[in-house]
Design brief:
It contains 21 helices and no strands. It is mainly alpha-helical. Helix 14 packs parallel to helix 20 and helix 16 packs antiparallel against helix 17.
């Protein structure tokens, strides 16, 4: 032995030409959209149907993706105890990390005080701009929320695109298949084949993502304008800096403990990050994120259970936003909050932040509902950030999605089913699909 390693170096993956890479096409679409929206706002606003059409294409297929993956994920484990164990670990992780995000938002809000100096008189604000969101927020009690998880019919859940309802149906169906034993195997095989076909449909739709990203971003810039950020620049910069800190420090620490670098992971899912950034919805990246988690060494059954569940319960970006924005409104309207009131906001946000991931505007509605619990904070103050919420929703959706990917790897490692060698190799080589 001469001391040199005899392990062959991994073969280099064939490099796709830059112009054919999906991430480059999406990035180019975003850059062109910013230019169009800035130079000709009217034209930018007119591009909205392109973004809406792409999001609708994804929404069209997302419920069947979740149903197939969750059913196969549960049935593929063939062990109800394992399903309960994995689900329990995932929910504990989701709750701990998203609660930590709420706490960080609270600490940053009290330290930086982004709303200080606004001195806004709540009576001068347009409360009608927020009234529609307030009605949605207070129109549903906890009992109503729980009842809404149960669909009137199976078809109704899919027709309405209600992810929580589809998730419930999929969990029940998956448990039933597992209990059926060998008699359920033909159905499991069918679900596996159907999942393959559904993801092929997703891959076709994703080819239009640069056009969708262009339309969504052009509308955002044309409708709201970059200049709309200036009055509330401190809030936007604070929120963006907090999100970056959370991803690099908190999720980065979790990633390091799980054997990979967060920067390598971010590079690996850059297509999904750009797409979510443009569309302000983490749903648009859910199918391809699941494919990449499998490519990184996570078993299909675990991915099928953890990722869809995380899109409802793992809301890191939304959590950061809710406590930080709540304190901003209080500070901007010179509303002094006691420690008890701040802890009340924190406690309520733990509940209201769930289910806000992936849906545009859901986090804003959840925040309005949270503020209504503390009457001293004028809900009309939400009108201050209504105009820039779209810009904030971009990053909170991205953080939600990144957190979901990290969570999948972490839970898989906890189950001792993560192929660490495959994880490190593929993170170094990059995704196989351009």
């Amino acid at each position: 032995m001469n001391g040199q390693s005899t392990i062959p170096a991994p073969a280099k993956r064939h490099k796709t030409p830059l112009f054919r890479s999906l991430w480059f096409q999406v990035l180019l679409g975003i850059i062109l959209a910013i230019v169009v929206g800035f130079v000709s706002p009217r034209t930018g606003v007119a591009m909205k149907p392109l973004g809406d059409a792409f999001i609708r294409l994804i929404t069209m297929i997302i419920t069947i993706v979740i149903f197939c993956t969750v059913v196969y994920g549960i049935a593929g484990m063939r062990d109800l105890k394992k399903v309960a164990r994995v689900g329990g670990k995932a929910l504990i992780y989701f709750e701990v990390v998203s609660t930590l995000a709420l706490l960080i938002g609270l600490i940053v809000g009290n330290t930086v005080r982004p709303g200080k100096g606004f001195n806004v008189n709540p009576a001068s604000l347009d409360s009608h701009a927020v009234s529609a969101y307030a009605n949605q927020a207070k129109g549903q009690s906890t009992g109503d929320f729980l009842m809404n998880i149960i669909p009137h019919t199976v078809v109704d859940a899919f027709a309405r695109g209600n992810i929580l309802q589809v998730l419930l149906i999929a969990i029940l169906f998956g448990f039933a298949l597992t209990m059926a034993g060998s008699r359920g195997q033909p159905v499991i095989d069918f679900m596996e084949a159907l999942t393959t076909v559904v993801f092929n449909v997703v891959n076709i739709i994703m080819r239009f993502s640069p056009i969708g990203a262009f339309g969504a971003m052009a509308f955002t810039i044309g409708q709201y304008g970059i200049g709309s950020l200036e009055p509330l620049a401190k809030l936007v910069v604070t929120f963006y800096a907090t999100c970056i800190f959370f991803v690099l420090a908190v999720l980065g620490g979790v990633a390091r403990a799980s054997g990979f670098k967060i920067t390598s992971f971010l590079s690996y899912i850059k297509e999904e990050i750009l797409l979510v950034l443009a569309t302000s919805s983490s749903e648009t990246a859910l199918p391809t994120l699941m494919e990449k988690m499998e490519e990184l060494g996570c078993p299909k059954s675990l991915v099928g259970l953890v990722v869809p569940t995380g899109y409802t319960f793992n809301t890191d970006g939304t959590s950061l936003y809710m406590t930080l924005a709540a304190l901003f409104v209080a500070q901007a309207t010179n509303t002094r909050l006691s420690l008890v009131q701040e802890l009340t906001i924190f406690a309520v946000a733990v509940l209201t932040s769930k289910g806000a991931s992936g849906v545009q505007g859901a986090a804003f509605i959840a925040l309005v509902g949270t503020l209504m619990v503390v009457p001293t904070i004028p809900v009309a103050g939400m009108a201050l950030i209504l105009g820039i919420d779209r810009f904030m929703s971009m990053l909170r959706a991205v953080v939600n999605m990144i957190g979901n990917g990290v969570a999948t790897i972490v839970v898989t490692r906890w189950e001792k089913e993560l192929d660490v060698g495959k994880l490190r190799k593929n993170l170094a080589l990059g995704p196989s699909v351009p």
